[in-house]
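hi got a favour to ask and not much time before my train. below you get a single protein, a line of residues and a line of whole numbers that encode the local backbone shape. could you go over both lines and see whether the tokens make sense for that sequence. a few lines back from you is plenty, here it is:
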Amino acid sequence: MFSKKSAFVRGLEIGGKAPVRVQTMYDSTLVNADASAILRYISKLAAMGCELMRFSFVSSEDVPVFTRICKASPIPIVADIHFDYKMAILALECGADKIRINPGNIGAKWKTLEVLKAAKDHNAAIRIGLNTGSLPENTKGLSKSDLMVETALEYLNDFESAAFYNTVVSLKSSTLDITYDSYKKFASLSDYPLHLGVTEAGSTLTSAIRSTWTLGNLLKENIGDTIRISITGSLENEVQAGVEILRTLGLRKTGVRIVSCPRCGRHSFDSQGFLAEVEPELLSLSSDITVAIMGCQVNGPGEAKGADVAVTGIGNKVFLYKKGELYKQVNRANAKDELFSCIKELSVNE
């Protein structure tokens, strides 16, 4: 189970005996961006459980902002590079902890070798990032998954010939079976760390379902070392989905588990509105507790008995439960503050 090689990204171990890491990717240009605002955003995502942050690095105009982010980010920074090997080297000079390249679209092999030399010089990792949309010509009539695996192994051979081993591999497709088969075949042939993902997976709900099926089945077979849930939506949702998959599989223990009921016709408390109000802050807590937010006083307290803290209400009256017992009645206006005060008190006492 722990025979995989390890890669190191600014001291963060990927593979080996390390836990599965969650990452996401910034979704806007860096040209003239507010570096301070981006760094605050990274800190927020890190508090939610994100451990690596990737950026598209496409122009020399990105350099000032990207350099500052690399220097000040609380988590490792990855530069995503396409086509131009000089941009890969420039990203490393800016301080990128890891770069993602597809050697096939970098061009001549000597260009990849120059990137490997720069990565070694800067003590950085490289992800060989393949997907079915950018594979070499299929001259052998292989299946897409076999072609992807064969291509990755050829690139790894080139890396090893240059004595570069600080490598992670990804083999993505928007087709679930191809993604699953590619990773499973590769894992049977190589022990390099794997970054898992379903590319172009869709909107939040669609991506969560498709990614959970694919990545969940791979992770259950001990395949995968980092994950990104690719969502057409917010980065917060990507991180939350990734963390939740790991929690569901028992691969991550820390952080608040949220239980909330689907609202029905007997609801006496706006559980949906309250959850939207408190969820971002709940997800930033490291406390290993369960918080239940229930919509009615009829079944809510009973269904939430297993929670460490539970909230329900009737109209403007909100009831807080601790360990299944009524703890306090508060007004809706100060319910959020009272909830977090209760969580803090519980965490201190434990």
Observations:
- Residues 257-349 form a domain with the Sulfite Reductase Hemoprotein; domain 1 fold (CATH 3.30.413.10).
- Residues 110 and 116 are 10 Å apart (CA to CA).
- The chain has two domains: 6-248, 257-349.
- The radius of gyration is 23 Å.
